[in-house]
Amino acid sequence: MPIRLLPPNLVNQIAAGEVVERPASAAKELVENAIDAGATRIDVVLNDGGRALIVVTDNGGGMTPQELTVAVDRHATSKLPQDDLSNIAYLGFRGEALPAIGSVARLSITSRTAEADSGWYMVVAGGRKDGPVPAPHPRGTRVEVRDLFYATPARLKFLKGTSTELTYTVDAIERLAMAHPDIAFTVTADGRPRLNLAAGLTQGDLFDIHLERLSAILGKDFAANAIPVAAEREGIKLYGYIGLPTFNRGNAFAQYLFVNGRPVRDRLLTGAVRAAYQDFLAASRHPYVVLFLEVPRSEVDVNVHPAKAEVRFRDASLVRGLLVGAIKHALADAGHRASTTTGVSALAAFRPEGHQQAFVTRAPMVQGATALDTAYAMQAPLGEPTGEEGLAEGVSLFDLPPSAPEAGTTGQSGDEAISHPLGVARAQVHETYIVAQTADGIVIVDQHAAHERLVYERMKAALATDGIARQILLLPEVVELDEPSVQRLNARTAELAELGLVLEPFGPGAVAVREVPAMIGDGDVVGLVRDLAADLAALDEALTLKDRLADVSGTLACHGAIRAGRRLNGAEMNALLRQMETTPHAGQCNHGRPTYVELKLKDIERLFGRR
Known about the structure:
The protein folds into 4 domains: 190 residues, Heat Shock Protein 90 (2-Layer Sandwich); 128 residues, Ribosomal Protein S5, domain 2 (2-Layer Sandwich); 121 residues, no CATH class; 110 residues, MutL, C-terminal domain, regulatory subdomain (Ribosomal Protein S8, Chain: A, domain 1), CATH 3.30.1370. 35% of the residues lie in helices and 23% in strands. By secondary structure, it is an alpha+beta fold. The protein is built from 20 helices and 24 strands.
């Protein structure tokens, strides 16, 4: 067949296939144009999820009739004054959105500049232009898109249901609203208000303005559990908010990343976020993140994706290092803080609707402790355990002195102990949870999760200094495994030795354990080796174990932590609380689960009608 030029309308429809994927794409392009026009208020109206109607009205600069005529042609834009693609200062710079939309839908535009006596109206339907003609209109622009994809009905088959398409569209507008808190946004869907965001005060602090806007979009829980992030390196600025590790979700939809005010879904940035949180979250959990990058325009290419959803950095390693370092620093500053939602969930479990009764058994009095210390201890009193569960084992776990006092007599007065952030231990429940009294409430600690974090942080510190102390087994422990697992372990013996675990081959289907990390004590060595073999099967063979420290050391820490079901005495419980207060990230275990839940006294009083 001979080569020929395609007709202009078909060219526009092909462009529409890249630029206008669904109603959300069209709405995003129109809102970006309104932002570029200097609008301080943008109103969006949607019908049928955007398929039947999309209306975007702004109070921006507007267009003259001459500009209006050119605006619906391909490659027409006012946003590249120097024709320099390395210096893009606007969101919608390509000049393809309006002609692409007009080729597959019924498009009408009404616009007026501040200097004009009247507005101008123009229609583009199926690629055919009509106008412009004079029309009444205030300063700004109104773009109306009806019957999206009517000219290409096959595209309608690929759209989802009305509610799904509406969700996509609102999400696209919310992302733009996050980056521009100085602009007011409203969204009305099928006659009902869906979004109403007031403009932030431009003279206020930038962090406060952004947090107010983010709280309005993501909810008050985000604001209560958000950590500010601010960093700068070699001209690249990073700011925004990240969620506490215990405030997480099962997908990555709550990760909002922006480059120079542009919402992006960039694998480099999402990978940096995942790397920064790898010490704190399980692989199946994802943090809340809203981060803004300001990069010199010459150092980033925003013209590498048809929908402008991805960018390319000149120095990708610099950007990645900035993100990972800033996020880790912010998480370290959060200390042992845990999310507020854990306490709310705990209180909800006590509501009368549950129709559940809590049966409390009185425990024997402990010598030297007050009645308040023991009167309501459930199942496990604070007395010193004996035998294999005695204080000697607690010494190795918590570095206690040989003679440790009981709970409530830790060398401090009761008031001094309660003044600690995590209070003083009052009871152990189900030999798993520590109940502590604080100055204004109670704290419930998961002893295994909390100690797991403490052991893990010790391992990291030891690796960074003198190495992990090892303990020689009197009799080597032989662990039988399948042949592939044995091969994987034998290939990593040198790296495992750096982590304190010394293995030797022991025939075709087994390994012998000679030494273990001293901090895991008398843990389950067989279970530890089998879990490590499973971890190695999931790791990239090209990565060293230090590159995957969170995966391997997390397994070691889990086996080194005190187990649920282990009875602790008062001194051990208080020692655990004190170490949590001085250990980074003690508010969550290595898998992102909270290590403690705090209940304020005022909330407890409300449960009993005292407030």
